[in-house]
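User: structure tokens for this one?
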Amino acid sequence: MKTSGKLKGAGSAKNRRQVTEYQLGGGKIVVIDGFMSNAEAVTMSNYFDHKDFSRSMADGPKTETVKQWVFNFSKKELKGFEEKMIRDEITTYFGYKKFKIQTAICNSFAYGDASFIHVDSYKSKPCVTALMFANAEWKKDWGGEIMFFNDDDDAVYAVTPKPGRLLLFHGFIKHRAGVPSRHCYESRRTFVIKYLP
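Assistant:
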């Protein structure tokens, strides 16, 4: 996907930038709408339409037998996504100036798939997870919301997989990927990068 010079993170007139922040369990969740324009969201969606996904990742060791569809990025491929723009957002909202990429994937969920509550890191060594919803379109009845949980495993926040939206959060916050509803014939895809400071 050659998107250099396109995924600038500024959005468009129709995708006005709006930032919402939440606090949960000592961590932060940041939702940035309008990070990508509608055209950029379509470009990203088309890119993943032609990638080979494999069932190669689980939510954690306790669910190792339930693999998810995943595409793994190379460092070269990440450059085409203006990945520096995401790092700039992390510096702005989390204060980290130096960090390295731990994981860079796109996962794909379809109706009938399973996902589980998990964390991406621990408080002793926190990561920041950056997630872009990689569908060109998402209807309100399709479900697929990512859920965030408190220490009692009670769902507290839900974030809709809206095209053009960037989601940032501390990896030690419990969360679960949303699976599309029976009304959805699309795969719910998310471009995920985990950063270690």
